[in-house]
Write a structure and sequence with these properties.
Elements: E1 3-8, H1 10-13, H2 15-21, E2 24-26, H3 32-40, E3 46-51, E4 57-70, E5 82-97, H4 98-103, H5 111-114, E6 120-123, H6 125-134
Parallel strand pairs: 1-3
Antiparallel strand pairs: 1-6, 2-5, 3-4, 4-5
InterPro entries: 5hmC_binding, EVE_domain, PUA-like_sf, THYN1-like_EVE
Organism: Spirosoma montaniterrae
Protein name: Ubiquinol-cytochrome C reductase
């Protein structure tokens, strides 16, 4: 199993939207590294849901329920972009803020800090476990 983090602006598509929908097509990603990360996702992989921009924090946990397929929002040919489908698993008891993440020495090399503009990134198992612990989940 692999672990990932996806970022979304809460005012555009936040955790509340995601859970109300019950399943999301994670599409519209237009960065090659993020696309490669989407392509590497496998059924059952665990995905941390991060609210970016306003009140940045990891707010919940999702799972991959459909592996990469051609992004349905693409109109050009050939289609270089992919989408995956995610389902919510649980909201965090306590969101883990960006300030908490930056203050935690064990998270000093987390992709969220090193590549802050990337919207889909891998998370190491030890980072994943620590984020769950910090969330009281």
């Amino acid at each position: 199993m692999n672990f990932w983090l996806v970022k979304s602006e809460p005012d555009v598509y936040g955790w509340a939207h995601f859970t109300a929908q019950g399943r999301a097509v994670w599409d519209g990603v237009r960065n090659y590294q993020a696309r490669n990360n989407l392509s590497a996702m496998r059924l059952g992989d665990q995905v941390l849901f991060y609210h970016s921009v306003s009140k940045p924090a990891v707010v919940g946990l999702a799972t991959v329920v459909r592996e990469a397929y051609p992004d349905p929002t693409v109109t050009e040919t050939p289609n270089r972009w992919v989408a995956v489908e995610l389902e919510p698993v649980m909201a965090f008891e306590q969101p883990v803020t960006l300030a908490q993440i930056k203050a935690e020495p064990m998270l000093a090399t987390i992709a969220l800090i090193r590549q802050s503009r990337l919207s889909v990134m891998p998370i190491r198992p030890d980072e994943f476990e620590l984020l769950l612990k910090l969330s009281d989940t």
